[in-house]
Amino acid sequence: QLACPLDLRCHSVENHWPEMRVLVAIVSDHSKETPSTVGMQTSVQTSPLLTHRAEHIVEERMVAIEKAILERDFETFGRITMQDSNQFHATCLLRLPRHTGDR
Questions:
Q1: Furthest CA-CA distance within the chain
Q2: Helix (H) or strand (E) holding 84
Q3: What b-and-e string marks burial along 18-39, b requiring 16 or more CB atoms within 10 Å of the CB?
Q4: What is the pLDDT of residues 38-68, one digit of tens each?
């Protein structure tokens, strides 16, 4: 386990699942209109879905995705990743003022 801030769980899968790759594509060099920290603080204050996720969804999903990683189950890993990504983006749509993306 890696050193992590707060109560986050950080693990490297490098040795366990060496075939796993992460691709990050930067599609713009422009600064975002809403910095991530500001957007997250606004979401915490105004998005009911964020509270629901924290209280009812995140822990179960963390257990499930950790299991998928341990079992090298890419199908389950991908499904959980997409579900979580879609739901997290929904929190942005429910926050006030509404945020749908930059530019």
A1: 43
A2: helix 74-94
A3: eeeeeeeeeeeeeeeeeeeeeb
A4: 888 888 888 888 888 889 998 999 899 989 9
Q: Which amino acid is at 53?
A: R
Query: Is the omega angle on the peptide bond into residue 48 within 30 degrees of 0, that is, cis?
Result: no
Tokens of 11: 């693990």
pLDDT at 98: 67
Q: Confidence band (pLDDT; 50, 70, 90) for 74?
A: very high
Distance (Å, whole) CA 4 – CA 93: 29
Q: Please report, as a single letter, which amino acid is at residue 21.
A: R
Q: pTM value?
A: 0.71
Is the separation of the CB atoms in 9 and 62 below 8 Å?
yes
